[in-house]
Amino acid sequence: MKKINIAIFVSGGGTNCENLIKYFSGSESVNCALVVSNKADAYALVRAERLGVPTAVATKPELNDETVMMPLMERYGIDFVVLAGFLPLVPNFLIEAFPRRIINIHPALLPKYGGKGMWGHHVHEAVKAAGETETGMTVHYVTPVCDSGEIIAQYKTALSPTDTADDIAEKEHHLEMAYYPKVVEQVLRETFGL
């Protein structure tokens, strides 16, 4: 049986990217075939290269150019795209080429704290400012509207009034490390009948 080739799109440090690559490293059905970053200096690229996964950099103009991105996806036989801390909006042509085959992780319980400008520490600071008693992670399908795709899974963690934005970030990140690869695997199972 042909392995499912996934591309991981990243913008930053790459802890989720590395976690996904390691999770699927022994898989008989899933292959992390490519890591794509919109930033040439993203540490995620270093992590991927250390683990033997090919990498590519797609600047904003390249990301939005179908004649650049589609041949790249085809060259690596990409079947599914996983966003792991990828900040730019995914262009419509990619969403159309991979219908219900692009998923994202968001560091809050959507629909709260989503949309333009709500990424990374901005999210955790907003959660703190609102006095929330819990936060969590959301995995959702990617659509043309930022953070508005159908929710696949959510995991929650309790917050205390003394938690700082950094504490909130750390608690939420533990959820990502524990659950994101499992959710990806489940979606791949359902999508491709693994």
CA radius of gyration: 16 Å
- Number of beta-strand segments: 7
Assembly status: single chain
**Helical percentage:** 25-40%
Q: How many H/I helices? A: 7
Strand order of the largest sheet: 3-2-1-4-5-6-7
Distance between the termini: 10 Å
- Give the overall form: globular
The helix-and-strand class reads alpha/beta
Tell me the major beta sheet: 7 strands, mixed
Report on this model:
The protein is globular and about 50 Å long. Helix 1 runs parallel beside helix 7. It contains 7 helices and 7 strands, in the order E-H-E-H-E-H-H-E-H-E-H-E-E-H. The protein has 194 residues and is of the alpha/beta class.
Topology:
Blueprint: E1 4-10, H1 15-24, E2 30-37, H2 43-50, E3 55-57, H3 60-63, H4 66-75, E4 80-83, H5 92-97, E5 102-106, H6 121-129, E6 134-141, E7 151-158, H7 165-192
Parallel strand pairs: 1-2, 1-4, 2-3, 4-5
Antiparallel strand pairs: 5-6, 6-7
